Amino acid sequence: MAPARRPKKSQYTLDRGMPGAFEGETVSRRRFMTGTVHGAGMLMTAGMVIPAVGFALGPVFKNVTLGWQTVGTPDMFPEDNYLPVVITIAPGIGEAGKSTVYVRKRNPKVDTQPASASNQWVAITSRCSHLGCSVLWVQAAEHFICPCHGSVFDVEGVRTAGPAPRPLDRFYTRLHDGFVQVGPRYSVNTELRAFSPRDPGEPLDGIGQYAYPSRPTVRKLPGHV
Ligand code: FES
Fold it and tell me: Who lines ligand 1 at CB under 6 A?
Protein backbone atom coordinates (compact mmCIF):
# COMPACT_ATOMS: atom_id res chain seq x y z
CA MET A 1 0.00 0.00 0.00
CA ALA A 2 1.44 3.31 -1.14
CA PRO A 3 2.16 5.84 1.66
CA ALA A 4 -0.14 8.85 1.84
CA ARG A 5 1.35 11.93 0.19
CA ARG A 6 1.97 14.86 2.40
CA PRO A 7 0.16 17.97 1.18
CA LYS A 8 2.45 20.54 -0.42
CA LYS A 9 2.69 23.64 1.74
CA SER A 10 2.46 26.90 -0.05
CA GLN A 11 5.27 29.33 0.52
CA TYR A 12 2.75 32.00 1.46
CA THR A 13 0.52 29.96 3.74
CA LEU A 14 1.11 29.85 7.48
CA ASP A 15 0.64 26.58 9.29
CA ARG A 16 -1.54 28.14 11.89
CA GLY A 17 -3.58 29.98 9.30
CA MET A 18 -2.42 33.57 9.64
CA PRO A 19 -3.22 35.08 6.26
CA GLY A 20 -0.55 37.17 4.61
CA ALA A 21 2.30 35.95 6.85
CA PHE A 22 5.39 33.95 6.07
CA GLU A 23 5.81 30.67 7.80
CA GLY A 24 7.06 31.23 11.34
CA GLU A 25 5.89 34.83 11.54
CA THR A 26 3.73 35.76 14.49
CA VAL A 27 2.67 39.15 13.10
CA SER A 28 1.72 39.58 9.50
CA ARG A 29 3.22 42.43 7.53
CA ARG A 30 -0.24 43.84 6.98
CA ARG A 31 -0.98 43.87 10.70
CA PHE A 32 2.43 45.33 11.43
CA MET A 33 1.89 48.15 8.91
CA THR A 34 -1.61 48.79 10.23
CA GLY A 35 -0.31 49.06 13.79
CA THR A 36 2.51 51.35 12.71
CA VAL A 37 0.14 53.70 10.88
CA HIS A 38 -2.29 53.75 13.81
CA GLY A 39 0.54 54.48 16.23
CA ALA A 40 1.86 57.31 14.08
CA GLY A 41 -1.67 58.70 13.78
CA MET A 42 -2.11 58.63 17.55
CA LEU A 43 1.22 60.39 18.05
CA MET A 44 0.32 63.14 15.58
CA THR A 45 -3.13 63.57 17.13
CA ALA A 46 -1.62 63.81 20.60
CA GLY A 47 0.88 66.37 19.29
CA MET A 48 -1.98 68.59 18.19
CA VAL A 49 -4.48 67.96 21.00
CA ILE A 50 -2.21 68.12 24.07
CA PRO A 51 -0.91 71.68 23.41
CA ALA A 52 -4.45 72.88 22.63
CA VAL A 53 -5.79 71.39 25.87
CA GLY A 54 -2.84 72.89 27.74
CA PHE A 55 -3.55 76.37 26.36
CA ALA A 56 -7.23 76.00 27.21
CA LEU A 57 -6.83 74.63 30.73
CA GLY A 58 -3.56 76.27 31.74
CA PRO A 59 -5.10 79.56 32.91
CA VAL A 60 -7.62 77.65 35.02
CA PHE A 61 -4.82 76.20 37.13
CA LYS A 62 -2.57 79.24 37.12
CA ASN A 63 -2.52 80.79 40.55
CA VAL A 64 -2.44 84.56 40.21
CA THR A 65 -2.11 86.61 43.35
CA LEU A 66 -2.03 90.37 43.10
CA GLY A 67 -1.14 92.76 45.83
CA TRP A 68 -2.54 96.16 46.57
CA GLN A 69 -2.06 98.79 43.89
CA THR A 70 -2.00 102.53 44.49
CA VAL A 71 -4.47 104.40 42.30
CA GLY A 72 -4.40 107.94 43.69
CA THR A 73 -4.92 110.24 46.62
CA PRO A 74 -8.25 110.45 48.46
CA ASP A 75 -9.11 113.91 47.11
CA MET A 76 -8.96 112.61 43.52
CA PHE A 77 -12.14 110.58 43.89
CA PRO A 78 -15.53 112.36 44.14
CA GLU A 79 -18.66 110.89 45.70
CA ASP A 80 -20.92 111.50 42.74
CA ASN A 81 -18.83 110.36 39.83
CA TYR A 82 -16.44 107.57 38.94
CA LEU A 83 -12.84 108.16 38.01
CA PRO A 84 -11.35 105.50 35.70
CA VAL A 85 -7.95 104.22 36.78
CA VAL A 86 -5.77 101.51 35.26
CA ILE A 87 -4.48 98.59 37.29
CA THR A 88 -2.61 95.40 36.46
CA ILE A 89 -4.71 92.25 36.63
CA ALA A 90 -2.29 89.88 34.85
CA PRO A 91 1.37 90.67 35.53
CA GLY A 92 4.13 89.99 33.02
CA ILE A 93 2.20 90.51 29.78
CA GLY A 94 2.45 94.28 29.40
CA GLU A 95 -0.53 96.35 28.32
CA ALA A 96 -2.64 93.25 27.76
CA GLY A 97 -2.56 92.57 31.48
CA LYS A 98 -3.98 95.95 32.45
CA SER A 99 -7.60 96.80 33.06
CA THR A 100 -9.70 99.85 33.85
CA VAL A 101 -11.35 100.13 37.24
CA TYR A 102 -13.91 102.81 38.09
CA VAL A 103 -13.31 104.33 41.51
CA ARG A 104 -15.30 106.84 43.57
CA LYS A 105 -15.62 107.71 47.22
CA ARG A 106 -18.30 105.81 49.07
CA ASN A 107 -21.53 107.79 49.20
CA PRO A 108 -23.90 106.80 52.03
CA LYS A 109 -26.82 108.29 50.07
CA VAL A 110 -26.48 105.77 47.24
CA ASP A 111 -24.37 102.90 48.54
CA THR A 112 -26.39 100.07 50.07
CA GLN A 113 -23.47 97.74 50.79
CA PRO A 114 -22.75 97.92 54.54
CA ALA A 115 -19.81 100.22 55.22
CA SER A 116 -16.53 98.60 56.17
CA ALA A 117 -12.84 99.44 56.19
CA SER A 118 -12.52 97.84 52.75
CA ASN A 119 -15.16 99.80 50.87
CA GLN A 120 -14.62 103.44 51.82
CA TRP A 121 -13.84 103.81 48.12
CA VAL A 122 -16.03 101.94 45.69
CA ALA A 123 -13.95 100.27 42.96
CA ILE A 124 -15.91 98.60 40.18
CA THR A 125 -14.47 96.59 37.35
CA SER A 126 -14.95 97.59 33.73
CA ARG A 127 -15.30 93.93 32.77
CA CYS A 128 -18.92 93.07 31.99
CA SER A 129 -20.29 90.15 34.02
CA HIS A 130 -21.97 88.76 30.91
CA LEU A 131 -19.11 87.84 28.57
CA GLY A 132 -16.36 90.18 29.68
CA CYS A 133 -16.65 93.16 27.31
CA SER A 134 -15.59 96.56 28.61
CA VAL A 135 -18.40 98.57 30.14
CA LEU A 136 -18.43 102.38 30.09
CA TRP A 137 -19.49 104.66 32.90
CA VAL A 138 -21.86 107.27 31.44
CA GLN A 139 -22.16 110.04 33.97
CA ALA A 140 -25.11 111.74 32.27
CA ALA A 141 -27.14 108.53 32.60
CA GLU A 142 -25.55 107.52 35.91
CA HIS A 143 -25.24 104.00 34.61
CA PHE A 144 -22.61 101.62 33.29
CA ILE A 145 -23.40 100.51 29.76
CA CYS A 146 -22.00 97.50 27.94
CA PRO A 147 -21.80 98.03 24.15
CA CYS A 148 -21.68 94.32 23.32
CA HIS A 149 -25.15 93.04 24.23
CA GLY A 150 -26.73 96.01 25.93
CA SER A 151 -26.41 95.20 29.62
CA VAL A 152 -26.96 98.22 31.84
CA PHE A 153 -25.81 98.59 35.46
CA ASP A 154 -26.76 101.25 37.99
CA VAL A 155 -24.40 103.42 40.01
CA GLU A 156 -23.64 100.48 42.33
CA GLY A 157 -22.96 98.18 39.42
CA VAL A 158 -26.21 96.24 39.81
CA ARG A 159 -27.73 95.06 36.53
CA THR A 160 -30.87 96.92 35.49
CA ALA A 161 -31.18 95.62 31.92
CA GLY A 162 -29.64 93.13 29.51
CA PRO A 163 -28.32 89.59 29.76
CA ALA A 164 -25.62 90.03 32.45
CA PRO A 165 -26.23 87.40 35.15
CA ARG A 166 -24.91 89.36 38.14
CA PRO A 167 -23.68 92.84 39.14
CA LEU A 168 -20.26 94.12 38.12
CA ASP A 169 -17.38 92.77 40.20
CA ARG A 170 -15.71 94.95 42.77
CA PHE A 171 -12.29 95.39 44.32
CA TYR A 172 -11.42 95.86 47.95
CA THR A 173 -10.01 99.30 48.68
CA ARG A 174 -8.01 100.81 51.51
CA LEU A 175 -6.14 103.93 52.52
CA HIS A 176 -2.44 103.23 52.87
CA ASP A 177 0.22 105.86 53.64
CA GLY A 178 -2.13 108.57 52.44
CA PHE A 179 -2.96 106.84 49.14
CA VAL A 180 -6.00 104.97 47.96
CA GLN A 181 -5.19 101.40 47.03
CA VAL A 182 -7.15 98.78 45.12
CA GLY A 183 -6.82 95.18 46.28
CA PRO A 184 -8.34 91.80 45.47
CA ARG A 185 -11.32 91.49 43.16
CA TYR A 186 -14.53 89.95 44.44
CA SER A 187 -17.91 89.20 42.95
CA VAL A 188 -21.28 90.18 44.36
CA ASN A 189 -24.84 88.99 44.05
CA THR A 190 -27.80 91.30 43.54
CA GLU A 191 -27.83 92.17 47.26
CA LEU A 192 -24.12 93.11 46.93
CA ARG A 193 -23.09 90.25 49.19
CA ALA A 194 -19.43 89.41 48.57
CA PHE A 195 -18.27 86.12 47.04
CA SER A 196 -14.93 84.83 45.86
CA PRO A 197 -14.24 85.99 42.30
CA ARG A 198 -16.28 84.38 39.57
CA ASP A 199 -15.82 84.40 35.81
CA PRO A 200 -18.12 86.26 33.41
CA GLY A 201 -21.39 84.50 32.73
CA GLU A 202 -21.66 82.94 36.18
CA PRO A 203 -24.70 83.96 38.25
CA LEU A 204 -24.54 84.27 42.02
CA ASP A 205 -28.16 84.60 43.03
CA GLY A 206 -30.00 81.55 44.38
CA ILE A 207 -28.49 78.25 43.39
CA GLY A 208 -25.98 80.01 41.12
CA GLN A 209 -23.50 80.48 43.98
CA TYR A 210 -23.28 76.67 44.29
CA ALA A 211 -23.64 75.80 40.61
CA TYR A 212 -20.77 78.11 39.66
CA PRO A 213 -18.08 77.86 42.36
CA SER A 214 -14.98 79.99 41.99
CA ARG A 215 -12.02 78.46 40.22
CA PRO A 216 -9.75 76.49 42.56
CA THR A 217 -6.75 78.70 41.90
CA VAL A 218 -8.52 82.02 42.24
CA ARG A 219 -7.73 83.41 45.61
CA LYS A 220 -10.58 82.55 47.92
CA LEU A 221 -11.78 85.39 50.06
CA PRO A 222 -11.72 84.51 53.73
CA GLY A 223 -15.18 83.57 54.85
CA HIS A 224 -16.63 83.69 51.35
CA VAL A 225 -17.64 80.84 49.05
S1 FES B 1 -20.60 91.26 27.31
FE2 FES B 1 -21.71 92.84 28.27
S3 FES B 1 -23.75 92.44 27.76
FE4 FES B 1 -22.66 90.82 26.83
Answer: 128, 130-131, 133, 146, 148-149, 151, 162-164
Q: Which CATH superfamily is domain 69-211 in?
A: Rieske [2Fe-2S] iron-sulphur domain (2.102.10.10)
What confidence tier does 14 reach under pLDDT thresholds 50, 70, 90? very low
pLDDT in tens, 192-202: 999 999 999 99
Helical H segments across the chain, by residue range:
29-61, 208-211
Domains in the chain: boundaries: 11-61, 69-211
22-48 in b/e form (b: 16+ CB < 10 A) is eeeeeeeeeeeeeeeeeeeeeeeeeee
CB 82 within 8 A of CB 100: no
The distance from CA 210 to its chain's CA centroid, rounded to whole angstroms, is 17
Atom 1 of ligand 1: nearest residue by CA position:
131
Least confident of 49-58, 114-123, 213-222: 213-222
Ligand 1 atom closest to the Cα of residue 131 is: 1
Answer yes or no: are the C-beta atoms of 199 and 189 closer than 8 Å. Answer: no
Give, using CA atoms, the residue closest to atom 3 of ligand 1: 149
Give the Å distance between the CA of 168 and the centre of ligand 1: 11
**CA atoms of 215 and 199, how far apart (whole Å):** 8
